[in-house]
TrEMBL record, chain A:
This is NADH-quinone oxidoreductase subunit I. It comes from the Bacteria. [4Fe-4S] cluster 1 binds at C50, C53, C56, C108. Its cofactor is [4Fe-4S] cluster. [4Fe-4S] cluster 2 binds at C60, C98, C101, C104. Residues 149-162 have a biased composition (Basic and acidic residues). GO terms for cellular component: plasma membrane. NDH-1 shuttles electrons from NADH, via FMN and iron-sulfur (Fe-S) centers, to quinones in the respiratory chain. The immediate electron acceptor for the enzyme in this species is believed to be ubiquinone. Couples the redox reaction to proton translocation (for every two electrons transferred, four hydrogen ions are translocated across the cytoplasmic membrane), and thus conserves the redox energy in a proton gradient. It is a peripheral membrane protein. NDH-1 is composed of 14 different subunits. Subunits NuoA, H, J, K, L, M, N constitute the membrane sector of the complex. Keywords: 4Fe-4S, Cell membrane, Iron, Iron-sulfur, Membrane, Metal-binding, NAD, Quinone, Repeat, Translocase, Ubiquinone. The gene is nuoI2. GO terms for molecular function: 4 iron, 4 sulfur cluster binding; iron ion binding; NADH dehydrogenase (quinone) (non-electrogenic) activity; quinone binding.
Automatic annotation (TrEMBL), chain B:
The chain crosses the membrane at residues 6-24, 31-49, 55-76, 96-117, 137-158. Its main location: membrane. PANTHER family: NADH-UBIQUINONE OXIDOREDUCTASE CHAIN 6. This is NADH-quinone oxidoreductase subunit J. It comes from Pilimelia terevasa. It comes from the Bacteria. It is found in: Cell membrane. Keywords: Cell membrane, Membrane, NAD, Quinone, Transmembrane, Transmembrane helix. Belongs to the complex I subunit 6 family. The keyword Ion transport does not apply.
UniProtKB/TrEMBL annotation, chain C:
It comes from Pilimelia terevasa. GO terms for cellular component: plasma membrane. Coiled coil: none annotated. The keyword Isomerase does not apply. It is found in: Cell membrane; Membrane. It comes from the Bacteria. NDH-1 shuttles electrons from NADH, via FMN and iron-sulfur (Fe-S) centers, to quinones in the respiratory chain. The immediate electron acceptor for the enzyme in this species is believed to be ubiquinone. Couples the redox reaction to proton translocation (for every two electrons transferred, four hydrogen ions are translocated across the cytoplasmic membrane), and thus conserves the redox energy in a proton gradient. This subunit may bind ubiquinone. GO terms for molecular function: NADH dehydrogenase activity; oxidoreductase activity, acting on NAD(P)H, quinone or similar compound as acceptor; quinone binding. This is NADH-quinone oxidoreductase subunit H. The chain crosses the membrane at residues 6-25, 75-96, 108-131, 152-174, 180-198, 227-251, 263-284, 296-318.
Length: 174, 165, 319
């Protein structure tokens, strides 16, 4: 406890000092914001990569990914029988439910889902936030290139595995 | 009648009407608000009678403090917005007593002066009032302040918790 | 003073009554924003949002005029007018410059101003009770307790200056004022300013409208134009309090030079400086709790004001 009124004086000093500095405000619609490199704006879909494995839809905590597909027969020249392949009919994410946890992007084994920093997709009606693959695909253009590897970081697992000499090549082995 | 007379009469009417509403309304808080109006009109009458300082004292003390305290107490205890059903009114005795007292006083006043004209007093400026209170009337003034002090001490004694009841 | 001249003076006061609060309000928007590292309004009117308050006014005028079903209609409707009127009347007696630059010089101007300011409480109680809302009522009770308490140091500290000047007339007080009074009457100045802040219920004394606990206190049920009138009353209150502080303690129209011709400018500058302090205090201090509020009044302000009164009396009788 200091003198009575000391706190008030301190507050006055702080506010006065703040007033002499420039404000940090960015006038958003006029000045676009600087977004951090990994900001989570919206989820973009690269349709060609999707194999309809359904992992994302199943892992999504609130089940807001809708996938529909059918089987197609692909005749492979030289094969005995035609192969079966999944073809995507519909891929939609309901952004009124999505909580931007990123699990779908993490689990996708085929690099079909990406974070895009795009955030200006507000709608007047909640139901209009259900976006189909067309819209999700458009957002692919806004996905930034992946950040460069940390030159001093640990190598990726795959890299390490590739470097390891094949079993049996250099002796040892079982 | 001069314009001052007319003004006096008008303000008097307002004061009396507001005073009537104070006792006749069955909404507690509105009674207090009518009291504000009544006291304000009385202050206006002082003003017309050139007792300027007294008028401001009336506004400061009565409107600004006493009535507000009154309203405060009413709101703190009970203040239905609508009519209060449990107000007790002594039926016809109250108008009778009040009317008789008022009319009697008025008659006395009229009888005392008849048609003698009284010279208007000097304007009630702060100087004049101060001189009157602190020169000719110092003793009553001091006695009143002692009385107020006694009331204050009494109030503290009465409201002290744990005291004798 | 002829009738036409009186009309002109009253008209000028009304103009001041309508423009000065807007200036103060806009200043509050911008100053508060910059003190908090923001920009404040930037779009309305083009240049740094200068027309924000006009836009607000238009918005308020468009809003639906709601009166709660349980409310006491006439009292509810009357309260904003009762809140505004005292301030308008007080502005009439505040001298802007030396000589005749006052709408209506009064012999007991100081007393008149204090008396009329006291009437403002009634509007608060009216609004609080007529809303038929428990938050409003609580706000009103807090407000009444606060205003009754703070009226005492306000009047006492003003009395100290009146005693020093030997007059109750506001121009007379300014005429008697000397720069060294700033030092001698400093405690009275601080007490008066603090008590006046509490009288107009500005933060940190905004217990009656404490929005985080009482919704909006006695203003909870008000919308649209009536609410705008209450807001206007708050800003006129700032102007009136700043003007009274200026006239009583800061020497009114007395400036470093050219008092006679530039007096009005000095007065206005001082009024704006005090208004700035009011805004600044709002930004810098948190709201006082009810018990702190009463303790500050009765244990700090009233004794200091009484001490100042004794000091003033001693000096005045000694010289
Ligand atoms: S981010 Fe999370 S919630 Fe949103 S779609 Fe992907 S898994 Fe579902
Ligand atoms: S996890 Fe990837 S590949 Fe599998 S369905 Fe989802 S988006 Fe398509």
């Amino acid at each position: 406890m200091g003198l009575p009124g000391e706190g008030v004086l301190q507050g006055l000093a702080v506010t006065a000092r703040t007033m002499t500095r420039r404000a940090d405000t960015r006038q958003y619609p006029d000045v676009p914001p600087d977004l951090p490199p990994r900001s989570r704006g919206v989820i973009a879909l690269r349709e060609e990569n999707c194999t309809v494995c359904m992992l994302c839809a199943r892992e999504c905590p609130d089940w807001c990914i809708y996938i529909e597909s059918h089987k197609e027969e692909v005749a492979v020249p030289g094969a005995a029988r035609p192969r079966q392949q999944n073809a995507l009919d519909r891929f939609a994410i309901d952004f009124s439910l999505c909580m931007y946890c990123g699990i779908c992007i993490e689990v996708c084994p085929f690099d079909a889902l990406f974070w895009s920093p795009e955030f200006e997709y507000a709608e007047y009606d909640l139901r209009d936030l259900l976006h189909e693959q067309g819209r999700l695909g458009e957002w692919m253009a806004t996905v930034p290139p992946p950040p460069a590897h940390d030159p001093r970081g640990e190598p990726a697992k795959e890299e390490a595995a590739a470097r390891r000499p094949a079993p049996g090549a250099a002796g040892g082995g079982a | 009648m001069t314009s001052a007379d007319w003004l006096l009469a008008a303000l008097g009417t307002v004061a009396v009407a507001a005073g009537h509403r104070v006792v006749a309304t069955d909404r507690l808080v509105r009674a207090g608000l009518h009291l504000v109006l009544c006291l304000g009109a009385v202050a206006g009458m002082y003003l017309v009678l050139t007792a300027e300082f007294l008028a401001w004292v009336q506004v400061l003390i009565y409107v600004g403090a006493v009535v507000v305290l009154l309203l405060f107490a009413v709101m703190l205890t009970r203040a239905p917005v609508g009519a209060a059903a449990d107000l007790d009114r002594p039926g016809w005795t109250a108008p009778l007593v009040g009317g008789a007292a008022g009319l009697g006083l008025a008659a006395l006043l009229v009888d005392a002066y008849r048609w003698t004209a009284v010279a208007p007093a000097a304007p009630g400026t702060p100087e004049a009032l101060g001189a009157a209170v602190f020169r000719s009337w110092v003793l009553p003034f001091e006695v009143v302040s002692v009385l107020l002090l006694a009331a204050l001490v009494g109030a503290i004694v009465v409201s002290r918790p744990g005291g004798r009841r | 003073m002829s009738l036409a001249e009186l009309g002109l003076r009253v008209a000028l006061v009304v103009v001041a009554f309508l423009t000065l609060p807007l200036v103060v309000g806009q200043a509050e928007h911008k100053v508060m924003a910059h003190m908090q590292g923001r920009l404040g309004p930037m779009y309305a009117g083009g240049f740094h949002g200068w027309a924000q308050l006009l836009a607000d006014g238009v918005k308020f005028a468009q809003k639906e005029d709601l009166i709660p079903r349980g409310a006491d209609g006439p009292v509810f409707r009357l309260a904003p007018a009762v809140a505004l009127l005292p301030y308008l009347v007080v502005l009439l007696v505040i001298p802007l410059g030396p000589g005749d630059l006052v709408a209506q010089p009064l012999d007991a101007g100081l007393f008149f101003a204090l008396a009329v300011l006291g009437v403002g409480v009634v509007s608060l109680l009216m609004a609080a009770w007529a809303s038929a809302n428990k938050y409003s009522l609580l706000g009103g009770l807090r407000g009444a307790a606060q205003l009754l308490g703070y009226e005492l140091p306000l009047v006492l500290s003003a009395a100290s200056v009146a005693m020093a000047a030997g007059t109750l007339s506001l121009p007379g007080i300014v005429a008697a004022w000397r720069p060294w009074w700033l030092l001698w009457q400093l405690p009275a100045l601080l007490v008066f300013f603090t008590a006046a802040l509490a009288e107009i219920r500005r933060p940190p004394f905004d217990m009656p409208i404490a929005d985080s606990e009482l919704v909006f206190g006695y203003l909870t049920e008000y919308t649209g134009l009536r609410f705008a009138l209450f807001l206007l009353a708050e800003y006129v209150g700032i102007v009136v309090v700043a003007a009274l502080t200026t006239v009583l303690f800061l020497g009114g129209w007395k400036g470093p030079f050219a008092d006679a011709s530039l007096g009005w400018l000095w007065t206005l500058l001082k009024v704006f400086a005090v208004s700035f302090a009011v805004i600044w205090l709002r930004v810098a201090t948190p709201r006082l709790r009810e018990d702190q509020l009463q303790r500050l009044c009765w244990q700090a302000l009233v004794p200091v004001a009484l001490g100042q009164l004794v000091l003033t009396a001693a000096v005045v009788t000694a010289t």
